[in-house]
Fold this protein.
Amino acid sequence: MNRRAFLGLSALAVTHGALATETAASIAGTRAPLARVQTTHGADIVTASLTDRAATANLRRWMLAGDVPILRVNAAGILA
């Protein structure tokens, strides 16, 4: 395991953990949190580490066909 990457993700999780956990949980059901405000890069990284296959499918759909620009940007950021 890459120790530097692990410590970096751990630091991001501490900083953005609550937001990322809430966002990851909501991706399975609704787009609401991602359609309101732009997420930070750190929150995107932590959220991506918490998403499952179904959430990834939702993110891809929102990235390509989201009804508001901020939703498309947030989905692309998490997938990246």
